[in-house]
From TrEMBL:
The keyword Transferase does not apply. GO terms for molecular function: peroxidase activity. Its cofactor is heme b. Belongs to the DyP-type peroxidase family. Keywords: Iron, Metal-binding, Oxidoreductase, Peroxidase. InterPro entries: Dimeric_a/b-barrel, Dyp_perox_C, Dyp_perox_N, Dyp_peroxidase. Residues 13-140 form the Dyp-type peroxidase N-terminal domain. This is Dyp-type peroxidase family protein. The keyword Zinc does not apply. Residues 144-304 form the Dyp-type peroxidase C-terminal domain.
Length: 316
């Protein structure tokens, strides 16, 4: 079923904007009593973004903020976005998708690292004493949109109207039109085992050729596992904005995975296929070289919702 997307009168946060050379992912938990400061940062986010980014118009600074299930009730009470719940841990026969804490997500992107850094620093300054950091990852674009496994990442992302359809909550949850859900997972790669594979074997894991990025017909590959057909026979889409990160000196090579979706059930169904597996192919082979060390679900309200926070009563 194709649900109507919100009309243009609801302004979303900038999750539909293109990938940038730099990104910073910040996940924090709000301390007891820190709720007012958290509401203040969220309601002032657009202004903060303008203040940091205005003098560098080519910097393409943008920030998307999300709120976790538990924090939602503390910050805004009811109503609550219908699909918002804590990330559901998955314990597969070989691999585990862990669920880790996170009340607020800031997905900051820009053409330059310094802009991401400056915005994150200001957000944290305003949250000082009100929130603790769970995770902070500085990520970067790598060669021609490749991840640290060496493959081009993001090719099959929807664009334009199809992306908006896949991402923006519409009339199915009228209080939250123009919002979206964000699933994040930080993955660490075992690059030594990966690089010990022949390129042909790597291509079978991913389901695309490495150099030329052409799709291969390999049942059970990462691409095959994540091609999800809905009950109406149409492909179910998510919008991925995953970015590489790492510290070579510490042997750390990772992918910060983030997917935006109008219905969290879509990325969750992909995760179930990846981690729990389905006969006859089993789990996603990318997991034999990639370990999820975080996992959190957030709701990303519309930009209009954030702006209206000062007029919304804080829950008791
Ligand atoms: C270790 C972390 C991951 C890496 C390195 C990775 C890498 C890739 C690569 C290289 C592709 C092929 C090119 C493209 O279309 O982007 C791809 C496709 C895709 N991945 Fe991932 N991915 C990861 C995790 C995930 C997760 C957790 C999900 C779902 C929750 C996911 C969903 C998808 C989807 C939907 C596609 C497109 C499938 C299609 O061709 O229709 N990926 N990924």
């Amino acid at each position: 079923m194709v649900l109507p997307v919100p009309s243009d009168d609801v302004l979303p946060q900038p999750m539909l904007s293109p990938l940038t050379p730099a990104a910073l992912f910040l996940v924090v938990t709000v301390a007891p009593g820190g709720e007012q400061a958290a509401r203040g940062v969220l309601s002032g986010l657009a202004g903060l973004e303008r203040a940091v980014g205005f003098s560098s118009p080519d910097g393409a600074l943008g920030c998307v903020a999300g709120v976790g299930a538990e924090a939602w009730d503390r910050l805004f009470g009811t109503p609550r976005p219908t699909g918002l719940h804590p990330f559901r841990e998955l314990d597969g026969p070989r691999h585990r998708a862990v669920s880790t804490p996170g009340d607020l997500l800031f997905h900051i992107r820009a053409a330059r690292v310094d802009l991401c850094f400056a915005l994150a620093a200001e957000i944290m300054r305003q949250l000082r004493g009100a929130a603790g950091v769970e995770d902070e990852v500085q990520a970067f674009a790598y060669f021609d949109s490749r991840n640290l496994l060496g493959f081009v990442d993001g090719t099959e992302n929807p664009v334009g109207r199809v992306a908006a359809d896949a991402v923006l909550v519409g009339d199915e949850d009228p209080d939250f039109r123009g919002g979206t859900y964000a699933v994040v997972q930080k993955y660490l790669h075992d690059v030594d085992s990966w690089e010990a594979l022949a390129v042909e074997a790597q291509e079978k894991v991913i389901g695309r050729t490495k150099l030329t990025n052409l799709e291969l017909d390999v049942p059970g590959s990462h691409v095959d596992v994540n091609t999800l057909i809905g009950p109406d026979g149409n492909e179910q889409r998510i919008l991925r904005a995953a970015m590489p990160f790492g510290r070579p000196g510490h042997g750390e090579f990772g992918t910060y995975f983030i997917a935006y979706a109008r219905d969290p059930e879509v990325p969750e169904a992909m995760l179930r296929k990846m981690f729990l597996g389905e006969p006859p192919t089993g789990h996603d082979p990318i997991l034999d070289y990639s370990r999820a060390v975080t996992g959190t679900l957030f709701f990303v309200p519309s930009a209009d919702f954030l702006r209206s926070i000062p007029n919304r009563p804080a829950p008791d």
